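Subject: Sanity check before I submit

Could someone independently write out the structure tokens for this chain? I want to compare against mine line by line before I put it in a report. The sequence has 244 residues.
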Amino acid sequence: MLPETQSKRTFVFRKYYEKYKHLWILLYFFVYMAWFNYVEKTVTTHFHVIHVPIDDYIPFCEYFVIPYLLWFPFVGWGIAYMALHNKTDYYKLCAFLFTGMTIFLIISTVYPNGQYLRPTYFTHHNLCTMLCERLYAGDTPTNLFPSIHVYNSLGIYLAVTHNKKLRKNKLVCLLTLILTVSIILATMFIKQHSFFDEEIAKSEERNRMQMEDFTEEMESQKKNFDELLQSMETVYRHAAERKK
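---
Independent answer below. Compare away.
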């Protein structure tokens, strides 16, 4: 290989590395999937049953499997958009998502949980019931507390509504809200989660937001305090110069 060609390739590699090096934190998903597959294989029969009375009044509706499955491209789109357009929002979103996902894994490991809400058979068959059957076959009714579908959906919605560009697009915000609400409802209507899971996930989201607001307030106060100190130093320096 000619030295010039190798130098050009090195330059191109460095250029792309500097531009996309922030994507390395997405390797977390490999850790998450490995840990999740472990608890999926180990938690099968002996677990704490998640159930509240309201679950018995929520009917099964196979059509909600559509927004449930849309969760995967929805989360992928949210992360990809932030990664390509706003690194600050991207880091905040990943920190938000990864924190909740890690808490979920820890809970699933130390507190095995599951549910018996799924229908044992379908009274009719269509495309949506077929999708539900495949979903049930590939995803056990365990390790569901709190709901990552709910937590991550709310995370993407908050990221969109806090992004300087996207929050100005009312259509995008509306569609994101509709999809987020549909996904939350879907987890209950296709019997993937208990109502209790949803409330815990939303509570975790609220606590996380309150902590972020507190942190931002503390940073703002620190900035104001630093500015006050600088002003005092300036006044003191001027006073000292006048005495001389």
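---
OP: Matches mine. For the report I'm noting this point. The two ends are 71 Å apart (CA to CA).
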